[in-house]
Amino acid sequence: MSRPPRILHLSSLYPPHIVGGAERSVSMLAEAQAAGGWDVAAACLTPGEPAEESRNGVRVFRMAHGNDFWLEDWPSHTPRQREWAKFKQQANFAIERRFGDVIDRFRPDLVNTHSMVDISTRVWRAAKRRGVPVVHTLRDFDLLCAASSMFRETGPCTHRHLKCRVLTFTKQFDQRVVSAVTAVGEGVLARHLRYGFFDHIPPARRQVIWNTAKVEGVDAGYAKPPLAGPIVFGYLGRISPEKGVDTLLKAVRLLPAAGWRLLIAGAALASLAPYEQLARGLPVEFIGFQGPRALFDRIDCLVAPSLWAEPLGRTVLEAYQAHVPVIGARSGGIAEIIADDDWLVPPGDVPALADRMRRVLAEGRPRSPQGRDRVVARTTPEAVATAFAGMYGAVLSRPDLAPDAPVQ
User: Fold this and answer.
1) 77: which residues sit within 8 A by CB, 6+ positions away?
2) Which tens digit of pLDDT belongs to each residue from 36-90?
3) pLDDT digits (tens, 9 = 90+) for 198-235
């Protein structure tokens, strides 16, 4: 192919509608490809009327979701309603038709799907029916788990529970339409392979490609403002049990009474009151939603104490961009990024986390993390776009390796 391929991305959401890191990552990839001269489009769901627009060089198709309720409204429904909606979602023929219409309008050479939360995997069959190969990027556990996280109230899931197998059973069949798979981390790819997903794909077409990490206001000339006074720890992200915020607040209660502060940036999915109670009487401040640089400029060390096996860990990537070291949980993508046992602690281990934070206090203000250059080199927009281009080229150059799963 003499010209760059026409690429159509698909993700549940796309900016400016942002709930988590997936939509940021997809838009950064699409915009990097567009800046490189590619013809790029993105499709996503919308709670409103269907629309088409151009955003930073990317043609964006916003499709009506066709589910029982919008994805951000799940907390307002009963567990039984959510389970029934998730079960029905597998046969959402409306979104299959709508995505097929987008393919017909944009006429891509290749479709790259991403987070499929609330999107029926029948969209893959819409591409297959039109002879368009699919590359899927694993950014969560939605194909395996009804909650997308492989985490429940009792802790991380060690296996697929019966309920999840029932609520996602058609995905096991639909995934055989996919021609290649990328993943944001080794762990998320390995877990899908363990359960028989994407084992039909040749190993050369299974690749780990980290997300782009770009912090607004942090570039090659960035200099972290000098800090004085107590050592300042920080947390950035959703305030919820699976993120380990309880673990962090219990750990800081074991620290010396003075010489440190903790800033917690983010919003709670439910009430903030239980976390405020854990922090009562401590130098802990809940500062609400913050842009990454706004927090990084104020802290000496980030803590990423997640209990669940995060596929990658965007906040860790962003902290490294800003020369902020990270104490992280030894699980999932967080451990893959940090790759230094000296800065890792077992997830949920309150004494171990407190011990590592005490070491920071004893050693004084930490320097930029040792592995920063390695991480930054893998997460520039150009590096990520180049890695995807290689995968696209492999798929488009060998159509004879396309999956032969029947289309229904």
Assistant:
1) 69, 85
2) 999 999 999 999 899 999 999 999 999 999 988 888 887 788 989 988 888 898 8
3) 999 999 999 999 998 888 888 888 888 889 999 999 99
User: Across the beta sheet with 58-64, what order do the strands follow?
Assistant: 51-55, 58-64, 40-46, 7-10, 110-113, 134-138, 180-183, 206-208
Parallel, antiparallel, or unpaired for β 206-208 and 180-183?
Answer: parallel
Has this prediction a pTM greater than 0.85?
A: yes
- Return the residue matching tokens 């969560």: 140
- Give yes or no for a contact between 385 and 196, defined as CB atoms under 8 angstroms apart: no
Extract the tokens encoding 70: 């919008």
Residue-wise DSSP of 159-190: S--HHHHHHTHHHHHHGGG-SEEEESSHHHHH
Query: How far lies 401's CA from each of 129, 297, 300, 395, in Å?
Result: 16, 49, 50, 8
Contact 44, 117 (CB under 8 A): no
Task: Indicate the angle between helix axes 21-35 and 314-321, nearest 10 degrees.
Answer: 60
Plot region of 281 (φ>0 → left; ψ -120 to 50 → alpha; else → beta): left
How many angstroms separate the CA atoms of 46 and 70, rounded? 8
Which two tokens mark 126?
């819409």
Contact 43, 12 (CB under 8 A): no
